[in-house]
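Sequence only, no structure available. Ideas?
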Amino acid sequence: MLDEPKLSPWGAVQYCEEMNEGIYFVETAGHGGIMIETEYAKEILSPEARRCGFKENGYLNFEEDCAAAVAQREFLDKEIWKIPDYIKDKTEYENSLNDSIKRYFPEYWEKREKKLSANYSKNSEKKSLSQTLKENKTKIKQPENINKPVKEKNNMR
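Reply:
I predicted one. Tokens follow.
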């Protein structure tokens, strides 16, 4: 893994936060974004997401205004990053990521939604089959007297 970046495509790094191993959020005097080691990016990001970034100095870069939302969306989907605690309204934050992606990277959003829909359909089919099996499972009715104590028979005379 590469060391924490000192220089970014946007200039000298003034602030760097490691989001996860090999993934950095950087700020410079005028701009910033997310930098992911190129080889690691191939492992963790979809090809569609990688096309939204640009390569420079061993990193795949996502500028903060638009493209970073794509990387963050993938990190959230794959559970390799979570929205920081200092962001109070996580739902609103996630919605703003989605809105940004829909506006600036509609092709990525469309492919992501298709993949999610296909995965949902597969999981729903499995779940509904499982649910159907549970619902249709025939219960064997126990005889009413199964748990009642047996009375001793009187000797018949």
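The radius of gyration is 28 Å.
Hope that gets you unstuck.
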